[in-house]
Design brief:
This protein is mainly alpha-helical. The chain has helices spanning 2-27, 38-51, 64-71, 75-87, 112-128, 133-145; strands spanning 60-61, 91-94, 98-101. A 3-stranded antiparallel sheet has the order 1-3-2.
């Protein structure tokens, strides 16, 4: 009986961990190839998930070790990301309880200056390639639908 309870408890614990793990693995995509350091990518991903409403105030973040395992990165990478997010007051750590999303979302605003620059470059390239405005807008619209 004791062995069965231990087994059942551990199976449930493993299952709960896997559900939690899969949620974070799904939310934080490892397929982002960027020239940015990994910790900055994680910071940007976290801010993006908050901006999209996928992470909300008081949501608990994974532990540093758990997140490092999910992202398949070194623990120090996650520590550096968490430190930056704490410095920006986006997350807060409560000793003995964990790390949580705060309600300070002032730092999470779309970077329209960057978007404008990217759009200008895109339009310039499209003109060089002979792509019409309609073709470009259709392509962008199609990408939004994916």
């Amino acid at each position: 009986m004791y062995g069965y309870l231990w087994y059942t408890k551990n199976v449930i614990s493993v299952w709960l961990f896997m559900v939690h793990y899969e949620r974070w693995d799904f939310m934080f995509n490892n397929g982002n190839f960027s020239n940015k350091p990994l910790y900055k990518q994680i910071v940007d991903e976290t801010k993006g998930l908050i901006a999209k409403g996928m992470l909300k105030e008081n949501d608990k973040m994974p532990s540093v070790r758990e997140f490092a395992k999910i992202k398949k990165v070194n623990i120090s990478t996650i520590q550096k990301a968490y430190q930056q997010l704490e410095n920006e007051k986006i997350i807060t750590t409560i000793i003995g309880k964990g790390t949580f999303i705060t309600n300070n979302f002032d730092n999470i605003k779309p970077n329209y200056k960057l978007i404008d620059t990217l759009i200008e470059d895109l339009v310039r390239e499209a003109k060089v390639l002979g792509i019409t405005k309609e073709e470009l807008l259709k392509k962008i619209s199609d990408m939004f639908e994916e």
